[in-house]
Amino acid sequence: MSEKKRRGVGGKIILALTLLFFYFPIFYIILFSFNDSRSLTKFSGFSLRWYEKMFADSTMMEAVFYTVAIALIATLVSTVVGTVTAIGLSKSSRVLTAFVERVNDLPVMNPDIVTAISLLMFFSVLSVRKGFLTMLLAHIMFCIPYVMLSVTPKLRSLDPNLIDAAMDLGATPLQALTRVIVPQIRPGIVSGALIAFTMSFDDFVISYFTTGNGVNNISILVYTMSKRVNPSINALSTIVILLITVTLGIVNIVPILRERKGKKKS
Amino acid sequence: MKQFRSMTYPYVLWISVMIVAPMLLIVLYAFTTSGNDVLTFQFTLENFKRFVTDSVFLAVLWRSLYIAVVTTVICILLGYPIAYAIAQLGDRGNTIMILLITMPTWVNMLVRTYAWMGILQDEGVLNGFLGLLGIGPVPMIHTSFAVILGMVYNFIPFMILQIHTSLAKMDKNLLDAANDLGADPAHAFLRVTLPLSLPGVISGITLVFLPAVSSFFIPKLLGGGQYVLVGNIIESQFLTSGDWNFGSAISMIMAIIIMISMYLTRKADVSVASNGKE
Prior knowledge:
- The complex is a heterodimer of chains A (266) and B (278).
- Chain A is mostly helical and 266 residues long.
- Chain A has a single domain (59-250), classed as MetI-like fold.
- Chain A contains twelve helices and no strands.
- Helix content of chain B is 78%, strand content 0%.
- Chain B has helices spanning 2-6, 9-30, 46-53, 55-87, 91-106, 109-119, 125-132, 144-169, 173-180, 185-214, 217-223, 230-239, 244-277.
- The model of chain B has no long low-confidence stretch (mean pLDDT 88).
- Classes of the chains: A mainly alpha (266), B mainly alpha (278).
């Protein structure tokens, strides 16, 4: 065996072990969501009882609803606001751009718990009642910087005269924006929206500190329920895993397939 | 262009209210005594003094730093060979492996941490496996080992992706050149590949250390209720004991430690970059 081949085998073993490490816990949860008994360690037979229990459990169903609702609204709002602001900043002074970028860095660079307690105190000082609205505002707050981080590089690579050219040709500023700029930066907008959705959907720390009034998302529910053995969490987790994997799998695999098709044609 | 510039004004207002003002509240509360009215402040350093003079709190801080450093070191030692092995694959293998490594990170961290709770039990599958080898049962859940394992599991993808990016950017011709100049593979790795990939390692360090030092649900789920890190103290100050002033001071201390460590790693990054140019 040549040395190169031997090294290739070593690498493949490392990668196989890596995938085992990453996926074992995920498959473990999926397997035990079908367990017949309460045990988290002994598999005693196939059953769907934890799924039935989950669907019958109104707190769980509410948590799923709140998670999806907040993720959708936060994604929509943060994508629009983030894109509009990023476009505006690309035409703004350096000082303003630097200010916005520095402030945007705060929630991105700071530990989540610091951002979370700052919002908790802020809402309390203003005596805003914590619940759905405060959690939603917090999610919009931490999602926008990620959208901007994903849109801004695309804007930088645009020809700075593009807007002028469009307006010289008779487009109104709004038309220049929606018909010329936005189509050019669409990939950045889409990936920004995707990051925003997963950040919001998966968030625990900031949600945990900014919610109240019995409004829970899936993460908070897992955290509070995991203190006692409750196999319905496995069922809920399995649904979450499936949802996220299928959505993002499609989003990531479709472009690869399309590219391959394009290559075949050409 | 004025129309475009004005598109930023709502967001500037928004971040002033939603990011800047809340962050200033932390500073305000950290330096004031509790029980203030909103308008009469009593400035004090008592909150910081209370933290640095209490041996229990200091022990928790050291433990958090220790756990975060160990987690970061393990992530480098395991993440580097993994990233290197991925970089050796072809283009398609690269894309697929990176996708496979990113995919678990999309799944909720709470859910992934919760999964380890069952695996690490005394009668769990890992101890069952060790039992087949005639070892154990080794107590794993509610130990430092479980906490570090949970952190490595959650944060190592960041390290792998950063190192992989810097390895993938590397010009492969450099290795041929090193080979032509008589360097054996080990030598070429140490003198060419390793220095060129260090910026990836360094940005990986920040991405692992920062969440590791501030995490509070991983110690709670895998370390048990008795296992306390800095994040758990902050949580209890805000959600149980309601001492915002003390909690803010601890958060500031943690944020400062993180800022210093990020400054140091960035400095290391600059010196690595300038060494490379020589």
